[in-house]
């Protein structure tokens, strides 16, 4: 069984990254919720909460599969998200599915294309993601859809509860470290806008890399 308890030796650094990736946006009404596909079904659940709370009139779930999700979501991330949302009471007509995207850039681009094809005008969107994906989702959206008014949101779980919900502390820390690296390197590759990174965040990232949390780093 994977471990779900965050070791004290890494807690401070992990909490530093966790807080950095939270954009701390206030939830407010937008034209659409865009649920970014991943291994985390909480993305779908929180998109449902936004719909039920009259924060959005419709939801787009976007995502095909990554190697880490194909076993859990064999029909594709967005398809399983849609099924979960319908099971939670969202009407089918309030949900659109984009089932081809395999990275965050494609999530944004393909969702924009789908909405345009349906003649749905969107000026604002709530990007619903894993907690540690918020900053990368924001920087990607502002690069690829700069005029979009973006709110970032995630299921509001404390770090330790989130780790338990995923069921594997190493997986969560690896993903946090990987997303931090992407904030650093993606702007120069044209994938995202630059983001400020405080020195304490970069130092925490480097200590966790040295500790071996490297499985989600890009080469």
TrEMBL record:
One Gene Ontology cellular component: plasma membrane
Gene3D superfamilies: HUPs
Domain annotation DUF218: ranges: 47-150
Protein's UniProt name: Uncharacterized SAM-binding protein YcdF (DUF218 family)
InterPro entries on file: Cell_Envelope_Assoc (IPR051599), DUF218 (IPR003848), Rossmann-like_a/b/a_fold (IPR014729)
Native source organism of the sequence: Actinomadura luteofluorescens
